[in-house]
Amino acid sequence: MRNVSRAAALAAAFMLVSAVAGAAGIDPVLQAKLDARMAAVKALAADPVVVEAVKAVNATARPEYADMTQEKWVSLSVLDPLVRPLTRNDAANTLKTKKADEVSEAFVSAASGVKVAFLSKPTNWSHKGKPKHDVPMTGKTWQGEIEMDESTGVQQIQVSVPVLEGGKPIGSLVVGFAVAKLR
User: Fold this and answer.
1) Under 8 Å between Cβ of 145 and 24
2) Residue 41 in contact with residue 173, Cβ under 8 Å?
3) Averaged pLDDT for residues 109-137
4) How confident is the model at residue 62 (pLDDT cuts 50, 70, 90)?
5) Which domains does the chain have, with CATH numbers?
């Protein structure tokens, strides 16, 4: 009888894990494809151009962004003089030149969570207080669930990794992968 209850408990646990994985929408094949791309994401975060850009923003707050709020950020167009430089700096150019086809978005944040560079304007000016920034700032990687991204309009999975200097996190890199292109 004991083996039957153990088998039932294991079956129930398996069903629970399967239900949670199914709810997140990340099947094992999709997860394996995502895992295979993590080395490239980590390499991008370690690119010297990206690291130097984060260090520069961490060292000196840019005066033109001193009064930036989320409300103001949302109101800015992609052509605004406060937005465009973040798509045209050296770090943004590095993101563009190393962008894989399945990448739907990528952005680099300083330690404070404010943007350093991006491919296209993200929904938020700062991601401080959100796991996609806070987890990498502890030196770990983070992965979200499948979601419809507000800024790109693409169903994607975001991952983020720390930007490191001397083994210590100084910022974060978030990369969104288009689910349709991964499948």
Assistant:
1) yes
2) yes
3) 97
4) confident
5) 27-182 (3.30.450.20)
